[in-house]
Amino acid sequence: MRIAFTGKGGSGKSTLAALFVGFLRSAGHRVLAIDADVNVHLAPLLGVTATPASAMSQPRNAASIRRHLLGTNPRVSAVEQFVPTTPPGPGSRLVTLDPADPVLAGHATALDPGTHVLHVGTYEREDIGAGCYHGHLAILENLLSHLHLGAGDWVVCDMVAGTDAFANSLHAQFDLIVVVVEPTPESVSVARRYRDLATAAGVGDVVVMVGNKVGDDVDLAYLTNELSGGPFAVVPMQAGLRRARQAGVCPTPQDLDDVAPLSRLAERAQDGPMTPQRRAALLRDLHLRLAEQSWVRNAYGDVTGQLGPVLA
To answer: What DSSP letter does each residue of 80-101 carry, written as one string?
Structure first.
């Protein structure tokens, strides 16, 4: 299963992603946690020091990952021909959650044999005035497109805040996208915008809203009214969680009064409507759309040949 957490900055999405990773670990699942937020909060919340040298988007690391993914795929002539939406093809190597997988072994931090953490990276000094975080996220798109999960395996991604996932293919890569919403007008506005864009992109049924930091019945009524039916799940204000964070301790599900919201999210992801065939069709359309962009044609030529034939 693939699940992403997003929402307005400060809504608690990174903390909920970390709690969900802990929930899955306690249930015995293999988990790949990916910190894709420019502010890099999930990795530290899991006890991982995220350095520039270990970032997926660091040029040497990105090239290494793409070289592995490329394998002997004849549809992609070289590592340099990877675009964000490049799909796997004959001879491509897929990433698994096996601890010996070359991408995990070479680029991830292992919390235990079944849990690994990757981080995309953030802006560095050399990016000032010359870089865009969407470019950093391209390697994440490549990895997700070349991912093979076994039964019971999970990918948990902490996304960039707001609606940036619609500038690339990330909105089509997950079985469930969790929009974390505080009971404030600003947070609700971001959630509504995300839901509208998801509907327009054909993934509206993959998105759920989770109310966070809900202090009382007034907060809950506000979210219920403003979100047209209310949140899928609610996480109340948690004194134990605040105390853990104030002490600099990584959050765990034991800090919650009730883990039922995490359980509901896991069930919803497993029962969700995103099939492999549907995802492949969405990603194919996004690749063709990207291939039409002038900057892609100028830099890479015609990349439509990276796609295989459509199977009946």
So the answer is: GG--TTPPP-TTPPPB-S-TT-
d(CA 215, CA 212): 9
Count Cβ atoms within 10 A of the Cβ of residue 125 and give its class: 0-12 exposed, 13-18 middle, 19 or more buried: exposed
State the pLDDT at residue 242: 81
User: One-letter amino acid identity for 12?
Assistant: G
pTM of the predicted model, to two decimals? Answer: 0.94
Mean pLDDT, range 125-147, rounded to an integer:
78
Distance CA 260, CA 113 (A): 26
pLDDT of 84-119, one tens digit each? 999 999 999 999 999 999 999 999 999 999 999 999
Query: Which tokens hold the place of 200?
Result: 């327009």
Q: How many residues does the chain have?
A: 312
Question: How does pLDDT run across 238-256, given as a tens digit for each residue?
Answer: 888 888 878 888 889 998 8
Q: How far is CA 163 from CA 9, 28, 142, in A?
A: 11, 32, 20
Residue type, 154: W
Question: HEC states along 3-51?
Answer: EEEEECCCCCHHHHHHHHHHHHHHCCCCEEEEECCCCCCHHHHCCCCCC
Give me the helices (H) in the chain, please. 13-26, 42-45, 59-70, 102-107, 133-145, 185-200, 217-226, 239-246, 260-270, 276-291, 294-300
Nearest to 37 by CA among 145, 128, 153, 121: 121
